[in-house]
């Protein structure tokens, strides 16, 4: 997952972009939107003012005055509301490579945006200060979908990226931004844990351009112990995105002692090839201690290199190592001729030999969104 800079969200709206202090105004917002309120799209009424959220696999049944597991969807007198619509807590400009997306508009910058909230409880979350917060715990200011798109346009940023926390919990806000961005010719990308029901995801896929799913592990036990969630819905989400034809990349954060054994990695890679295809990029990312896993060691680079070998042996064509700046496995290589196509140093693209979606050297087609 993208890491938000510490204290970047305090305060969000006076954000330094292009060296210019940008003040986001609340004009154009309804009173409810200024308060962060908009009616949720995915829920049903159960009677006696009870509601059931249908956005994610938890399907929370929520009593009047109470909130769902994500902390940002509240039942008010029998109507389910999002509490974070038009209320970003973090906004910035960053390279698309930081997401990471390596096969989606490489070398471009993106406007990044998040609200508070998440529907998982990952013990190693880098952004726990905002992902595990309630809306009233973090400073925000109103920024409507139109204003988000206008800001990206003003700064000549070709991508708006929903990231840092869990974008699915601010679904309505994300969806409306994506619709307006597409009308302006601005692409949208989503960085998500993929813990979402198929129906909302299919609808979202109609309006966004790229989705990166954190496939955090490949056993039910890992998801239950480390993330407080379940594996199967995430696998279904990845299949849903792939079938929709939206650009998909996967990240697997390799945590020593939790999800780093060769057998599990091989099973995961085989599933990716069989269920999603051999051209879906997979990033094996180095873990660094954070949040509730402070006593776990950082991932040895040799472990990541072993994961890359396993993935390539299974037959995946685009396999990367993340959080190890300067490693050769940051680069993109042609799966046909083996030549380096995109050179990277950390989040910086140092060279690009993909021309019109093809290898400059052998003319093989390279999977991705390049223009």
Automatic annotation (TrEMBL):
Q: Name one GO molecular function term.
A: catalytic activity
Membrane-spanning parts:
none
Cite the CDD domains for this sequence: Radical_SAM (cd01335)
| Superkingdom of origin organism | Bacteria
Query: Radical SAM core domain location, by residue?
Result: 103-317
- Residues at which [4Fe-4S] cluster binds: 118, 122, 125
Identify which cofactors the protein needs according to its UniProt entry. Answer: [4Fe-4S] cluster
Q: Report keywords, A-Z.
A: 4Fe-4S, Iron, Iron-sulfur, Metal-binding, S-adenosyl-L-methionine
PROSITE patterns named in the record: RADICAL_SAM
Q: Which residues form a coiled coil?
A: none
Query: Gene3D superfamilies of this UniProt entry?
Result: Aldolase class I
| Cofactor binding mode and count | Binds 1 [4Fe-4S] cluster. The cluster is coordinated with 3 cysteines and an exchangeable S-adenosyl-L-methionine.
Q: Which PANTHER family does the record match to this protein? A: PYRUVATE FORMATE-LYASE 1-ACTIVATING ENZYME (PTHR30352:SF5), PYRUVATE FORMATE-LYASE-ACTIVATING ENZYME (PTHR30352)
Designated name of the protein: AmmeMemoRadiSam system radical SAM enzyme
Q: Which gene encodes it?
A: amrS
């Amino acid at each position: 997952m993208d890491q938000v800079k510490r204290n970047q969200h305090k305060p969000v709206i006076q954000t330094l972009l292009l060296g210019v202090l940008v003040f986001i105004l609340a004009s154009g917002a309804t009173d409810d939107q200024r308060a962060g309120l908009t009616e949720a799209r995915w829920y049903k009424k159960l009677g006696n003012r009870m509601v059931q959220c249908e956005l994610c696999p938890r399907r929370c049944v929520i009593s009047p005055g109470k909130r769902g597991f994500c902390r940002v969807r509240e039942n008010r007198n029998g109507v389910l509301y999002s509490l974070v619509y038009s209320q970003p807590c973090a906004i910035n400009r960053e390279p698309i490579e930081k997401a990471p997306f390596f096969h989606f508009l490489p070398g471009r910058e993106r406007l990044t945006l998040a609200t508070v909230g998440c529907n998982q409880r990952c013990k190693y979350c880098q952004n726990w200060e905002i992902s595990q917060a309630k809306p009233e715990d973090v400073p925000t200011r109103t920024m409507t979908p139109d204003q988000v798109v206008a800001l990206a346009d003003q700064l000549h940023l070709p991508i708006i990226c929903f990231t840092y926390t869990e974008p699915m919990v601010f679904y309505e806000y994300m969806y409306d931004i994506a619709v307006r961005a597409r009308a302006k010719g601005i692409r949208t990308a989503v960085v998500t844990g993929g813990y979402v029901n198929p129906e909302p995801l299919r609808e979202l896929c109609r309006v966004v351009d790229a989705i990166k799913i954190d496939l955090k592990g490949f056993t039910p036990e890992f998801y239950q112990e480390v993330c407080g969630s379940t594996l199967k819905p995430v696998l279904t989400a990845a299949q849903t995105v792939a079938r929709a034809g939206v650009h998909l990349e996967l990240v697997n954060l390799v945590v020593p002692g939790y999800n780093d054994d060769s057998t599990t990695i091989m099973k995961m890679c085989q599933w990716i090839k069989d269920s999603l295809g051999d051209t879906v990029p997979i990033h094996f990312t180095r873990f660094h201690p954070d949040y509730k896993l402070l006593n776990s060691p950082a991932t040895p680079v040799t472990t990541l290199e072993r994961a890359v070998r396993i993935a390539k042996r299974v037959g995946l064509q685009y396999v990367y190592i993340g959080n190890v700046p300067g490693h050769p496995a940051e680069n993109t290589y042609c799966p046909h001729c083996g030549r380096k196509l995109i050179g990277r140093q950390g989040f910086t693209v140092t060279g690009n030999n993909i021309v019109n979606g093809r290898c400059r050297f052998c003319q093989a087609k390279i999977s991705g969104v390049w223009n």
